[in-house]
Amino acid sequence: MKSRKIPALAGVLFLTVLLAGALIGQKAAPPRPSSDDLLVPRESCTSILIGKDASVDGSVMTTHTCDCGICDWTWRHVPAADHKPGSTRRILHISQYQTWPPAEGLKWDLVKKDYAGFEIPEVPHTYAYHHGMFGYMNENQVAIGESSIGNQRKMENPTPAAGLDLTMLTLLAMERARTAREAIHIMGSLAEKYGYGFHDEGEMLAVSDPAEAWIFEIMPVGPLWTPKSDKPGAVWCAERVPDDQVSVCPNESRIGEIELANKDMFLASPNVVSTAVEMGYYDPKSGKPFNWKRAYSPQEGSAVSSNGRIQRLWRFFDLAAPSLKLRPEMPNMDLPFSVKPDRKLSLQDVMDMTRDRSYGTPFDPVQGIRGGPFKNPSYFRQTRLIDDGRAEYTTVTQCRASLPGPIGGIVWISFGSQDTACYMPFYAGATELPRSFAVGDHWIFSRDSARWAFDYTDFHVQVAYSEAIKDVKAAQARYEGETIARIPEIDKQALELYKKQPGEAARFLTAFGLNNAKTVVDAWWKLGDEILVKYNRLYLYDTQKRIYERGKPATPDWWKKAVRIFDILSEPEKKDNR
Amino acid sequence: MRTLSTLTILAASLALLAGPGLSGQTVPKAGLPVLTTSAGQSTDVETLNIVMEEAGIKYDYCDVPTADMLASGVGLGGKQSGPGFHVEVTTDTAKFPVGTPYKAVIFAIGASLKGMGASGLTLESEEARLKKLVDYCKQKKILIMAVHVGGESKRGASGSDNERMIDAVAPFADYLVVTKDSNRDGRFTKLAKGRNIPLTEIDYALGLVDIVKQVLL
């Protein structure tokens, strides 16, 4: 008895601590930000940026994990257009969160009803682009990724005086910009003139082209701003990621001290400092240099102090440059703006980064019994991971200087949780996106919607995650890996066509994107079916040999021990209930 | 933005007074102390509080006050902020000691499922909570001022979350102030006429600064 009781008591103690931790992590309502003066979106998107000299093939890359869980995931292509002199562009209020039941129509049709009440002068020519929640890639290889960063509470401007939301700004940038710098100036100047906010708060955009990658951050200037005030209706700042470096934005402002004289690396609105002074967020007499993030979006804490809630920043840098040995205890505000990666990153490396679950770190979601017998990272969600499973979709954009815009730019799209999905490429010059990418929502299952194919597989993977994920990885290697390997040949063929007749190249690239997407979506529906059959009732079915094994997938011994310990923990409760 | 020039505020005030919004209606007078709160938990209540600060008016604020807290008067019964529940007491207690009954409650109307979720509310429970507050105000003759500054596109269609919040408060208000953008369809005008409620239309939230001064000071 004695020898049995000691480990049992240790187990009880261990589980008590564990369960207490779990209960602490399961509050009904999300906690208020650490400071009442700050609006902080800590559970949203992650965006990664890769400079051209930090990538294996010279691509400038950005990513956007569009984390929401209840938002719209649909995509559209907008063709180029010419506009008569005197034409105007109707401005819409576009909420990142609002969705409509499919029976009422598609978001990008219905959102036209949300007229912001004004129009702006149209430009003579607007460029073609692909967009989802935001504009992502135009025919000039101007690309965008996004992450909400919040702002000082009193900066928020949810009133209609703020004429422009973030989504609208990105669409305008796609329509009008030839370079990343132009995109930044277009978005910044429009926001200054017409006001920024309404649906959105402080936001970061990863803005890139074949030469440069920029972190652009924009904030509203408070609800009492009016267009008649003669003051900018937004405050913004942009810092360029050095060409040989990489950076990330995981819902935290990334720009610190700024050198406005260095136009090669910094761009900003004229009120970048004065607004902070007026609102009391910076005192020039303090003797300290102005620091953008400390003034407008100061988020304290570290990966460790937040118990993993804000570990993505540290995790990304540790993934990219482990030799720096950055410590997870380091306050996030003190982590660098960007780092030089230990080795140049390939497209596949970047895709894998978007799938990161912090395995093997102090924030490993499956350490101990957290993942259950089949090491499922979705069971214990205390830590906020880069791959959180809530993504509407994830993008990886590639901008390549060696090719003309329509061929050099590619947006790779994966739907749903990155670990169980597959990236599909769409060239900037493609003139059509799949119909299955334009439909569907979270509440009505639809086999017409590409997104549901990936949710279908993801759902079945959850049952025996550690086993089924191997099947998914095999499919990813085939459908994603082989497509990546084919890209140089597609580039070559497209370039030959482009030199003769650009229209032919566009048709070729469109067909490639559509055909590949159909193949992948069909494969994922089939993969979901196969996983269902293979692990049905938690046996292992061999469909070729028509046999099954009851002992597989095997429940590990440590899990059986954990179950016994839990039984012992529950015994007093059972007695009490008699 | 706190340091908006006097000229700007003066210009906005003159524009407001010259505009059609007041329509000859008398702005009701209530006096202090005042409680600000939300009907629907949107961030519009933050706008309202910033307006109060710009106007130099001290106020008490709670996003989800109960009728009991309202009945406790200044200080809101000593309730403290917690997760999904926020209290701010800035009323000058030298002039209005703790427990002084409120003379006005200003509701910022605007529904946010995100906001309600954070406060552990549903649309139905928010409606029920608001009804109790409105009933208490009516019983104790506390002026109800309802403000909608969120604009048309946040209103939504008939039966939307936002419209339900409007229905929960606006018909029982003693004074309505809305931005023109919020009233493009004339919904508030019709409601105000039908119930003989004074209504002021403003161009921007900035227009509220002068109005709260008129009502409360």
- Give unreliable regions of chain B as ranges: 1-24
Q: What's the number of helices of chain B?
A: 8
The radius of gyration computed from the alpha-carbon positions of chain A, rounded to a whole number of angstroms, is 25 Å
Structural class of chain A: alpha+beta
Helix content of chain B: 25-40%
- SSE order of chain B, one letter for each helix or strand: HEHEHEEHHEHEHEH
- Determine the strand fraction of chain B and express it as a percent band: 15-25%
Largest sheet features of chain A:
6 strands, antiparallel
Shape of chain A: globular
Number of distinct beta strands of chain B: 7
For the sheet with most strands of chain B, the description reads: 7 strands, mixed
- Mean pLDDT figure of chain B: 87
End-to-end Cα distance of chain A, whole Å, is 24 Å
Largest Cβ-defined interface: A-B, 34 and 40 residues
Protein described:
The complex is a heterodimer of chains A (578) and B (217). Chain A is of the alpha+beta class and 578 residues long. Helix content of chain A is 32%, strand content 17%. In chain A, helix 3 crosses helix 4, helix 10 packs parallel to helix 12 (502-534) and helix 11 packs antiparallel against helix 12. Chain B has a seven-stranded mixed β-sheet, sandwiched between helices. Chain B starts with 5 loop residues before the first helix and ends with a helix. Chain B is 38% helix and 15% strand. Chain A binds chain B through residues 27-32, 36, 93, 97, 113-117, 153-154, 156-161, 198, 221-226, 228-229, 278-280, and chain B through 1-4, 8, 11-12, 42-44, 46-47, 50-51, 54, 81, 83-84, 86, 110, 114, 117-120, 149-154, 179, 181-182, 184, 203-206, 209.
